[in-house]
Amino acid sequence: MTVFLDSSSKQAAHLAVEELRKWGQSRQGLGVALIYGPVSAEDRLYHSKCPVEQRSVTALGEALEEIGARWNVLDPTQPDFIRELVSYDVALSNLHGPYGEDGRLQGLLDYLRVPYCGSGVAASTVAADKVLCKRIMLTLGVPTPGWRVWSGGPVNWGSRAVMVKPPLGGSSVGMSLVRDAADLPRALTEAAGEGGDEVLVEDYVVGTPVTVGMLELPGGSVIVFPPLTTEATDAEFYDADTKLDVDSKGTVAVRAAELEPVALNRIARDTRTLWDGLGLRGSARIDFIVTENGDAYALEVNSTPGMSRDSNFAVGAAMVGLTHTDVVLAMLHEALVRPPYDVPLPTPVFTSTTATREAAVSP
User: Fold this and answer.
1) Cβ neighbours of residue 347 under 8 Å, at least 6 residues apart?
2) Do residues 68 and 23 touch, judged by C-beta distance below 8 A?
3) pLDDT digits over 279-337, tens only?
4) CA 304 to CA 59: how far, in whole Å?
5) Does the model's pTM come out above 0.85?
6) Helix (H) or strand (E) holding 213
């Protein structure tokens, strides 16, 4: 059973961090494939709009330099991606959304037998699919706002406001807060995209948005960061443009959540339940909404948290004494001590004549 640490477990956390830093000193020259590229709609948006200095990949590269790793950014949209990937000791993915954190990349890495940071195929798949994740939440007894799935056809409008979300992807891309029934068809169409995908329609719960980061440390213990709240001063909710901070206005405030003990206890219980229940590994961030009366509802699970210097995850880590580089070390450590996925598969052979098939994607 997982041993969970929090801000009150200072001695155990300190010992784990000291062990982590000693381990890092012996890993000079470690070959790290930092996977990043405009694969999903979410990553294409970041790639085109987010300032370079604010990107997670920039901060991760700086941490790898500090560690003394031999690293390079590998772009999955390039034809030599797999050929280069197998030459590294470990993979650290900064991809989000479909093909990055939904189990498909993880399955490829398992097949290639390249160790990788973060959760495996099953946990990644469940966490990435908001509808599937909600079903698992209900099975685990974790409260989540009421919801239904729209897959086309007549729109059944209730009397309350709703959040309309694409089931896959993050950073609030394609998400809308709908208060008026007349706005619902447009929101559904936008969320469904060109492929006409199913859409999650979730009851809008008024409350404080709270996020909790979790990081696996040496020995298998998991440190749970203090709950944080994010306030978007110029937006009705924490939408895509606000997360990207395209105009560098700094209109987002991240701080420790001021919650009553009953709400803190519910969040602590549910974060632990979801970590074990989904089989998460390495790192994760779980988002909640907390009402005025202390009810906490889980919204989604992020198996590949954003890792920019000012990200919620990095801020939470700093509150328990972990530097950004410590977090990256912990991710690499977990990947390399995990028992390998080793089955009798042939070693892939790559040739210069291998045919490639390109997909047409919209920017």
Assistant:
1) none
2) no
3) 999 999 999 999 999 999 999 999 999 999 999 999 999 999 999 999 999 999 999 99
4) 15
5) yes
6) strand 208-216
